[in-house]
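Q: Structure for this?
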Amino acid sequence: QKEVEQDPGPLSVPEGAIVSLNCTYSNSAFQYFMWYRQYSRKGPELLMYTYSSGNKEDGRFTAQVDKSSKYISLFIRDSQPSDSATYLCAAGGGAGSYQLTFGKGTKLSVIP
Amino acid sequence: SAVISQKPSRDICQRGTSLTIQCQVDSQVTMMFWYRQQPGQSLTLIATANQGSEATYESGFVIDKFPISRPNLTFSTLTVSNMSPEDSSIYLCSVDGRRNTEAFFGQGTRLTVV
């Protein structure tokens, strides 16, 4: 079992829709969680960073972490064609542990 | 966040040859990381490169195949040696963020081995 599981999609939504992207993880030591956005032929770009359970909002993006169920989510409101990309979740351990474990990524297409 | 430049951005190489990928950061960083991103797979950490010491390799990756240099705090290279088609992948350079927990990436090197 991979430590971070992510449905690869692809996911296709109409413009303006609310998008929900999800990952599950198995390692209880993970303490911080990230979402990356990767456009085609580009490197991953850090989108959201969360350290604890709860919600974190940044513009149209909301990251949600539920440590009790080991579930992390990214919500995109009012999705735009420019949001079309692959979204990767990542998780990392406690202090002194710099290694990140990534999901496989979910490919999202927002159709105008 | 740091600005990370990788060269080349892509290459097509013959099997049996080697390719060296360069990573330049616009600020001094303690740790630099090299990842591999294969189609349909997670990003996989190859090794961690600290300045002035040998790189630390993850399970499944060895120095003879992926030698790494880290001559200073802003630069690193990864060499993919004796390439085979199975080495076709995207190779990514990464550095720590301010919190030392998140990673920032270069644009990647898309390698195709024929």
